[in-house]
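1st attempt posting a full record on here, be nice pls
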Amino acid sequence: MEEALRALDAALRQFLGVHLSELFPDWWRSGVIGALTYQQRQAAQESRWTSLDDLDLAALLRVTDQNWNEFRRQSQVSYEARTWLKEAASIRNRWAHEATSRKPKPRQLYRDLDTVSLLCGALGASPEVVERIERSRDRVLEVPDSPGHGLRDPLLQPIDSGAMAFSPGAQVRLVARPDTTGVVVEVITSGPEKRFKVFHDSGIQTYYASQIEAIVLGGESEMILAAQLQAGLTSAQLTHPSTRFLYSLNAGKIDFEPYQYRPVLKLIQSDRPRLLIADDVGVGKTIEAGLILKELQARQSVNSVLIICPKPLVSENKWREELKRFDEDFVHLDGGTL
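the predicted structure (as tokens):
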């Protein structure tokens, strides 16, 4: 597995080295430093990193993930490869923290190698590199100490995983991207876990059972009005909010600057939304907070919001007045009220 992760490391460096400069004039500051986590950015500043060679695999995965939408707009990556990238980050973390203390299960090792080989291929790694990882993956199923070397281990036979519903012809959607739907065209039973070839987005891709879910179809069809169809589409968007566009655009009574939408865009594209906005004075942090609030309200039910700020900003009504521009009237809390 270590060799496979080194191959992935090399593939990420090559991919980012070629394409980041095409996205940003100041690609190191905008595409790399701006994409790192707080801890990674702090390490970069303290160690004075200046090139991709200074980044470890975790940082390379983070940079690729944070710039994925830009890469996608430039047609440099495919939709399905995002799923492999997310899994690769989990694989790296698991191997970094657990590989030395416990022996991985063959099924898990097989799947990890399979994901890394698919991602390396999507990033443009050479066929020789991808083939080498695939050979390592296939060797996981061999039993070297048995008389019939190369026979399949009966303990590693395909498991059901509750995936019988995914038979050819079944309609499914991707767990990572629920708005992407397709049809199962083939079930692959070789290997330790079933895989499913799914036709979507004008192509066929392979997924594990945990990466797809069945679409439950309704009963008989019925005729509906255009207004009902529009309401249904709106409901679907609210149930599975898209990360491709904002639902609350122009919701506030403000003259905004385009850059003030960057925080809310980063928020909706994050797997675990946490955000620290630390712009300079006068840049518009309050407006950015208001835009985030309206977008969250458009996507889900927001029952309460707590704003903690210095007392002068409370007595001067600054936050309260600013947020009235977003049709929000907050109540000041003193000790007794709280």
